[in-house]
Fold this sequence. Notes:
Layout: E1 11-17, E2 22-28, E3 36-42, E4 44-51, E5 62-68, E6 74-77, E7 81-87, E8 92-98, E9 107-109, H1 132-135
Antiparallel strand pairs: 1-8, 2-7, 2-9, 3-6, 3-8, 4-5, 4-7
Amino acid sequence: MTRNQPWNLSLWSACRGCSGVSDVCHFQREPFAQVKLVSVIKGTALDVIVDLRRASPTFGQHFSIVLSEEDGNQVLIPAGFAHGFLTLEPDTVLSYKVSNSYSPEHDAGIRFDDPLLGIDWGCDPASTVTSDRDRQLPPFDPTARYFA
Length: 148
């Protein structure tokens, strides 16, 4: 591992959910944008990231990976990406290491079921346990400047 990265993953948090719980497409705006290292320490989850860097050739595209306790895999999410997950087993626990503190004033998100993003969550989005706040998030805006 190289030590010359401009970020430090010094903060840790965990999230626990029953099967079918989603926490979807959140990010923090500058100057509180976060690099995240996400893993599952119990159970299995579908992890999704969306590139929100306007100058990126992959702007508006997403990537998904199944993270599991059994596989021990992780995903490193750069700043400038939205992040969401769907738990696939009861009592799934995700672990986050992040590079910046949570700032409610800089917290933002986009709708997980936005047709422009076309994310395949592997289930009917209406059947997931999603907070009212997440269901009220705005759709993805291809003209927006979420990040430079």
